[in-house]
Design a protein that fits this description.
By secondary structure, this protein is of the alpha+beta class. The protein is 48% helix and 8% strand. It folds into three domains: 1-100, no CATH class; 137-213, no CATH class; 217-314, no CATH class. It contains 15 helices and five strands. It has a five-stranded antiparallel sheet with strand order 1-2-3-4-5, with helices on both faces. Helix 12 (183-213) crosses helix 14. It starts with 14 loop residues before the first helix and ends with a helix.
């Protein structure tokens, strides 16, 4: 099981040792590194050296490695080098000196200090510092942190809940609303409300064009060509025949008049979904039966041809 590079010795000049004697890097304490780490270490050599001198081994390693760290405490580099620079290091020296805190924990602590709130243990494991800054100003930060510890929810999930409240123009003044006892139920209830409101708007929009669709309702041979009375009927059609007509793409396009969804029924079974037709740009775009696989019977195809001819004449 050999390959092109089997038994090849890379870098026979002992580059690891030579790198430690490089004039720009000689004051750094370098663990065993991979060649892909060299450029990053060289670029941020000042920041790494400064942190090592003040005894902050963890943050120095976070900067050095882009991949998995060798000591197992952190698994990935999580530092933001747009934040860490000479001024930032000197300004926060007292916080960073001989510290084993993660970058996220440090940033959370600095942010909480601006709000006169003491750091809470293990908060950095529950939330990212950038997420805290996304909270609307109306939300009490102390109460939110306690709520977060109790509920242990995903922050993005909670923020989605807050955004939905704002979409519904709900004032963020009541703790019962801002911090519901069951965040998952409260979130899902809002999803349902907004979904219902959106459907109502779509239905109103659809009602405006229903008159123009009436010409598509025809009785041809043994078949009925019917226009959906509302959008829910299209969803039901898709569910009954197990095809994609009930999806958002077709609902939106049918509502806006970009396409036309027509139900085909057998006269003696007019309530039972049979085939679904899409009429677009003055011709039949597709006809789908159950599971999108059912072949169109000859008698139905003849009726569809007659229907299309008639619609073109009417148009």
């Amino acid at each position: 099981m050999s390959g092109n590079y089997t038994n090849t010795i890379f870098y026979p000049n002992n580059w690891q040792s030579k790198l430690k004697n490089n004039r720009d890097l000689k004051y750094l304490t370098l663990p065993r590194i991979q060649r892909q780490d060299i450029s990053r270490i060289y670029k941020y050599r000042y920041e790494i050296e400064y942190l090592q001198k003040i005894g902050n081994k963890r943050l120095a390693e976070n900067i050095m490695f882009t991949g998995k760290l060798p000591y197992g405490k952190d698994y990935y580099s999580t530092v933001d080098m747009t934040t860490i620079n000479k001024n930032w290091l000197k300004k926060n020296k007292s916080l960073l000196k001989k510290s084993d805190k993660s970058f996220n924990e440090i940033m959370i602590q600095l942010y909480l200090e601006t709000r006169n709130i003491k750091m809470i243990d293990n908060l950095d494991r529950l939330i990212h510092y950038k997420q805290l800054k996304k909270l609307p100003k109306e939300i009490n930060l102390r109460k939110f942190i306690n709520y977060l510890k109790e509920q242990k929810f995903s922050f993005d999930y909670y923020l989605d809940y807050i955004y939905m409240l704002q979409e519904l123009e709900t004032p963020l003044i009541s703790d019962l609303i801002i911090f519901p006892k069951d965040i998952r139920k409260a979130h899902d209830d809002l999803v349902s409300v907004i979904g219902k409101l959106e459907r109502e708007l779509e239905e109103k929009e659809y009602e405006k064009r229903q008159k123009s669709l009436q010409k598509y309702e025809q009785e041809i041979d043994e078949f009925m060509f019917l226009v959906p009375k509302d959008l829910q009927e299209i969803v039901n059609e898709g569910n009954a025949l197990h095809h994609c007509v009930g999806g958002k793409h077709y609902l939106d396009n049918h509502t806006k008049g970009n396409t036309n969804i027509i139900f085909i029924r057998q006269k003696e079974k007019v309530e039972k979904p049979y085939f679904t037709l899409e009429y677009k740009n003055q011709h039949v775009a597709q006809v789908q039966g159950k599971y999108n696989r059912e072949t169109v019977p000859n008698d139905l195809q003849k009726a569809i041809n007659k229907w299309e001819d008639k619609i073109k004449r009417i148009s």
